[in-house]
Design brief:
The chain is of the alpha+beta class. It folds into 2 domains: 136 residues, Jelly Rolls (Sandwich), CATH 2.60.120.10; 82 residues, Arc Repressor Mutant, subunit A (Orthogonal Bundle), CATH 1.10.10.10. Helices cover 44% and strands 23% of the residues. It has 8 helices and 11 strands. A 4-stranded antiparallel β-sheet has the order 1-8-3-6. Strands 2-7-4-5 form a 4-stranded antiparallel β-sheet. A 3-stranded antiparallel β-sheet has the order 9-11-10. Helix 3 packs across helix 4 and helix 5 packs across helix 8. The longest helix has 27 residues. The chain is globular and about 55 Å long. The relative contact order is 0.12.
């Protein structure tokens, strides 16, 4: 199952077996905590099955969703590398099977396998780029534009054909609000507006984006991108 992890694709069976021997396997059920903000566990985690949510909750109780990750992804690498407390909480969204690698083994893997090291570096630089874009959006875009940008991000991850996308299942309005630091009512209003512009339509549990290119143009215009 580790062969499905993006950072391990292309590794030999011998390398995969070595990695497997360094891991402990644990299953978490839906809504079960995996790590908590500021705890001192240090393992890196590889998602073999299921889906997890990474978030931060303010003292006010407001939740900020950082990302959702599914099978083939990894998390927890920051603490495994720098030894600092966890920077966010992680919970299983559905029943999830994880390979858990202690920090010492993770650091040894990076230092001994150039292919894995390069994959981890690319992952970290990708995270920095995404976070930079998110900070820019939060600092410069109006709420409605941040909602549009989030729908565009989800659409690009769920492209079909002919410039359309199907987000299935559609996130709740509250989840979108927590991704872009607003309230549910603002998301409801903007989705109604996008539906009126023939850009999205709700069908059952799915959200269909009818013109991804046009939505991208809207977002790029307010970002100042060509």
């Amino acid at each position: 199952m580790l062969s499905a992890v993006k950072e391990f694709q292309g590794l030999s069976l011998v390398d995969l077996e070595t990695i497997n021997e360094a891991c402990n396997w644990q299953r978490y059920e839906a809504n079960e905590d995996i790590v908590r903000y500021h705890d001192h566990t240090n393992s890196a985690f590889f998602i073999a099955q299921g889906e997890i949510r990474v978030s931060y909750s303010a003292l006010s109780g407001h939740e900020v969703i950082l990302c959702d990750l599914s099978a083939g992804e990894m998390f927890g690498e920051l603490t495994a590398i720098d030894g600092e407390p966890r920077s966010a909480s992680v919970v299983a969204k559905i029943s999830t099977l994880l390979a858990c690698m202690p920090a010492a083994a993770f650091l040894n893997l990076i230092s001994s396998n150039r292919q894995v090291a390069e994959a981890i570096l690319k992952r970290l630089t990708g995270q920095i780029r995404r976070l930079t874009e998110r900070v820019y959006d939060f600092s410069t875009l109006a709420v409605r534009n941040r909602i549009q940008a989030e729908i565009l991000r989800l659409a690009r991850n769920n492209m079909t054909v002919d410039n359309t996308a199907v987000i299935s299942p559609a996130p709740t309005h509250l989840d979108v609000a927590n991704f872009v630091s607003t309230h549910r009512e603002a998301v409801t209003r903007e989705l109604k507006h996008l539906a009126g512009e023939s850009l999205v339509i709700r069908k059952g549990q799915d959200l269909h984006v009818l013109d991804v290119g046009r939505l991208a143009d809207m977002v790029n215009e307010v970002r100042g991108c060509s």
